[in-house]
Design goal:
Blueprint (H helix, E strand, L loop, with lengths): L4 E3 H8 L3 H9 L7 E2 L5 E4 H15 L4 H10 L4 H34 L6 H11 L8 H12 L3 H23 L7 H18 L3 H13 L11 H11 L3
Antiparallel strand pairs: 1-3, 2-3
Helix pairs in contact: 3-4, 3-5, 6-7, 8-9, 9-11
Length: 241
């Protein structure tokens, strides 16, 4: 027979939540169990499970626990609306992942055949590759997309050439052990910043997010020939501008 009630430990095991989390939901009045046994055990019913599903869905959509509690208490969103919202978000994530897969597959093919990845391809990838919520907010992603959308095909070719030459010049100074504070290196750093501004609109928060991405993911294929050492080198030069 199907169960109609669950102890807190059972519910935690079945859902992947922790007992501590369920305790917390109870303590803040978000999900108190329908029953408490004589021995003090929390007993959850089918209606509690339905409510828990709504809580998890709303949490996944970005609502805070306080907001979720208010939504449930006021019944401002029914279960169908919540699931619809979650479906829309998941559908968008799937579309982004498909596009990301396609872009990465193209890059992999190029790299595997030892061909260079052009800056033009890099520009096309920015919008998708940086859909890593760990590093960029949606507002930042939208701003970067707006920037790349405004770049003409001719300008993209120019940027491709500029990036290629700039990276080569910086690497040459790095290999010569030229100090980052050297005027020539600092001038290269200024050019670097100028090109970066084309993608970030000069938004320093986006720059910081991008720096964190590059520093935490050294030597990734999206660096356009920029390894960890070169990035640290130009980063130090930029700090002296």
């Amino acid at each position: 027979m199907d169960k109609s009630t669950w102890k807190i430990g059972e519910l935690a095991k079945l859902t992947g939540l922790t007992v501590r989390t369920l305790h917390h939901y109870d303590q803040i009045g978000l999900l108190p169990p329908s029953q408490v046994s004589d021995s003090g055990h929390r007993i959850y019913s089918e209606s509690d499970i339905r409510k828990l599903q709504q809580i998890i869905s709303l949490k996944q959509l970005g609502f805070s626990l306080e907001e979720i509690k208010e939504i449930i208490e006021k019944q401002s969103l029914n279960r169908v609306q919540v699931i619809r919202m979650q479906l829309q978000k998941v559908r968008k994530q799937i579309e982004l992942q498909k596009e990301l897969y396609s872009r990465l597959e193209s890059i992999y093919t190029l790299l595997n055949s030892q061909k260079d990845v052009s800056a033009n391809q890099f520009i096309k990838l920015i919008e998708v590759i940086n859909m890593v919520e760990k590093y960029f907010s949606q507002e930042q992603l939208d701003k970067m997309k707006s920037q790349t959308d405004n770049i003409s095909a001719e300008e993209k070719e120019q940027i491709e050439s500029q990036w290629s030459n700039l990276v080569a010049d910086i690497r040459a100074e790095l290999e010569k052990n030229t100090p980052p504070e050297n005027p020539k290196v600092m001038e290269l750093a200024k050019k670097w910043k100028s090109l970066m501004d084309k993608f970030t609109a000069g938004d320093q928060e986006i720059v910081k997010s991008a720096e964190r991405f590059h520093l935490e993911n050294p030597n990734n294929p999206l660096q356009y020939g920029i390894d960890g050492d070169l990035y640290k080198y130009i980063k130090e030069a930029m700090s002296k501008i």
